[in-house]
Design a protein that fits this description.
Blueprint lengths: L6 H6 L5 E3 L8 H9 L4 E4 L5 H14 L4 E6 L5 H10 L4 E5 L4 H9 L3 E6 L2 H9 L5 E4 L5 E2 L5 H11 L4 E4 L5 H9 L4 E4 L1 H4 L8 H9 L5 E4 L7 E4 L2 H10 L6 H8 L2 H8 L22 H15 L3
Parallel strand pairs: 1-9, 2-3, 3-4, 4-5, 5-6, 6-8, 8-9
Antiparallel strand pairs: 7-11, 10-11
The protein binds ligand TUI.
């Protein structure tokens, strides 16, 4: 299979410049190992769990693959200090971060030889992180699922590329080889996909979640939580409709949002709860048509991208 060589492949030791996004309750060791074994970068999500959860996931992933893989740190996690230390002690080759600024952890990671690739949603943060020693950044547009910024991928990626010297990975709305080819045309040197990997055979989420992704059309996602400063994109379901309604009421507070939202992603991913689950997904859900192995997803995407780029 042809690939597109880039600095991202050299930096991370992967064959194909495709990262699997670190998704809470979704990106665990078996999915990450399958993606890494297929030549991409599998990423374990440390999510809101403690250090012992992450340590056991790293151990399992190492049993399943001898290829490089990454860990994603959710900067909103109550255990962020502990999981940041695990990444350092385990000398994980690549750490990605989301939903905040990883500043205070960077020095420790860099000293341990960990390559730091933060997710950014603006040029300003990307520039700051380059100065602090980031090896690359993931520029994620608002087409993405989960916590999203303001700018869309098409506008964000080339502006981040222009502002930085380090390589840029594009994310948000990319689910096939056309998306990869487009991202490289914008100056990116890799892509990160989340939604497409929800339909991977090795992804351990509830079958109801996978079915909803496969059935989703272009207009089936919605962003809620904007008013409280935590915008999240997910599939339109009874949960998101109710959330949207609640947040429109005058006296809706962060505490209300927290109690309503608590456990909603877990209810989707583990229980397939169609009423009270929150099915985070990107706008590319409409492009995802079938369940396939991680290897087939990566090879199909690369074949399409290299043909389009006439490589
Ligand atoms: O982090 C994500 N996506 C996520 S995190 C998440 S966990 C969650 N669960 C329930 C409710 C709310 C969140 C679900 N999805 N993507 C990476 C990402 N990071 N997208 C945008 C950003 C971002 C935004 C602002 C990164 C930095 C940032 O900077 C603000 C600052 O601190 O300067």
């Amino acid at each position: 299979m042809k690939t597109i060589k880039s600095r991202i492949c050299e930096l991370t030791g992967i064959t194909y410049p495709i990262f699997q996004g670190g998704m809470s309750w979704i990106s665990e060791a078996r999915l990450a190992a399958a993606v890494s074994n297929a030549g991409g970068l599998g990423i374990i999500s440390a999510m809101n769990a403690d250090a012992s959860y992450l340590s056991s996931q790293i151990k399992l992933c190492r049993e399943l693959t001898d290829k490089p893989f990454g860990v994603n740190i959710l900067l909103l996690s109550p255990y962020v200090d502990d999981v940041a230390r695990v990444v350092r002690e385990e000398r994980i080759p690549v750490v990605t971060t989301g939903a905040g600024t990883p500043g205070k952890y960077m020095e420790g990671w860099l000293r341990a030889g960990v390559r730091v690739i933060p997710v950014v949603a603006s040029v300003a943060l990307a520039k700051r992180l380059e100065k602090m020693g980031a090896s690359a950044v993931i520029a994620e547009g608002a087409e993405a699922g989960g916590h999203v910024g303001e700018l869309n991928t098409m506008a964000l990626v080339p502006q981040v590329c222009d502002a930085l010297s380090i390589p840029v990975v594009a994310a948000g709305g990319i689910a096939d080889g056309r998306g990869i080819a487009a991202a490289f045309m914008l100056g990116a040197e890799g892509v990160q996909c989340g939604t497409r990997f929800l339909a991977a055979l090795e992804c351990q989420i509830h079958p109801v979640y996978k079915q909803k992704i496969i059935e989703a059309t272009d207009s089936d996602t919605i962003v809620t939580g904007k008013k409280l400063g935590h915008p999240v994109r997910a599939l339109k379901t009874p949960f998101t409709r109710k959330f949207a309604q609640l947040e429109n009421s005058q006296d809706f507070t962060q505490a209300d949002a927290d109690s309503f939202g608590a456990g909603a992603l877990r209810r989707a991913a583990q229980e397939g709860d169609a009423v009270n689950g929150c099915y985070m997904a990107g706008q590319s859900a409409g492009l995802v048509k079938k369940i396939q192995s991680a290897q087939d997803i990566i090879l199909e995407m690369m074949q399409q991208a290299t043909a389009l780029l006439k490589l």
